[in-house]
Amino acid sequence: MSFTSGVTRWRDVYVVAGSRAVSVCGDFLAATTLALVLQQSGHGGLAVSGLLLAASLPLALLAPITGRLADRADSRTVLTVVPLLQAGVCLALAFTGHPVAIIGLVALLACGLAFTQPVTAALLPEIAHPDDLAKASGLSQTAGNIGMLVAPALAGILVGRSGARVPLLLDAASYLALVAAALTLRTRRKGEKSREAPLARWRLRDDRTLTVMVGVLAATIAGVSMIQVVEVFFIRDTLGASTTLFGFVAASWTVGMLAGNVLFSRVPPRRITVPAVLLVTGGSCLPLLLGAAVPGPYWLIPLWIAGGVCNGGINVFTMVIVAGRTPSAARGRAFAALNAAVQGAGMIGLLVAGPLVETADPRLLMAVAGAFGLIMTLVSVPLVRREPPSDPHMSGSPPGRDSVAA
Questions:
Q1: How many structural domains is the chain composed of?
Q2: Using one digit for the tens of pLDDT, what is the confidence trace for 41-87?
Q3: Which of 91, 227, 252, 364 has the smallest number of Cβ neighbours within 10 A?
């Protein structure tokens, strides 16, 4: 039967949040483990860079395919079949030591993620009433951040005590847990080809305001990705921090994201607008610019927490904005396009940072990256301040015919 009651299924929200925590923890556990394996085996930065690219490139390249599939396939089918295949890939990784084979298998894992991410993202607005979507998104983002915090430390402990095989087997088990979670979800999107031609031909660039927002987010992600490479040289070499202090600084951004998820999930839906997204995006860039001028590493901790708080706001607001401005039947394509832009920008940032860090001062690179993101957001706010009214079919509409209760 159609799920048209307009009532949030909180049980399903908690299932999605729990599965996100398990998924993110498993993915970061595997990524950290494989990076350690390559480093301990004597392979250099080229192999690690190849690993990072293999984990990102499929999400950008496959977006046109995975977005359409997310809108046409049964969500339960995708969320059970694909993780089963990913579990098999993880089992193969646990018994593989050659760097080329490792990178190839990681690319296969990322292909699976390219299919499941837009399905899960499009499913959450069908589970939650529009008035509760920010809270539901905040819960999901918080669960993912917890998994992100736990995974690196867990990987270090497990690799040190038992080698790489155990954490990779745990990652395989996490995919089996995702299958179990998918089977317990009562809400599912049934993929039906839309009978309305405008929805069948919907593209992200048809919405100018949404396109501007995604473009600014992509530019900011490129700068943040570049800083992920630069900060280790800035914090360790320029500021003279110990490895322990570096770990605390790096983790403080994620701590801020946790706080931001809780804080911004309480914002009333009417206040969640595209200009608001751009303002919190600028807020995430300002600490990077200020951080370039600090005299010591301890100053970065409160700045990184503040940046993480705004980053949490970006995650919550983006979910609400994309769901509100996109037809229900096209949300898989919308979230796939968003993922493609973010992943593509992240890869550009990583690729640009490598050569730059060899020739430029890390402090200067920090300032340029932060200033670039801040300027982009400030320039874009006037472009979207006068938003065109959303189509009632696209904004705040309750789940329709493609959402059913099982």
A1: 2
A2: 666 556 766 787 888 888 888 888 988 888 888 999 999 999 999 99
A3: 364
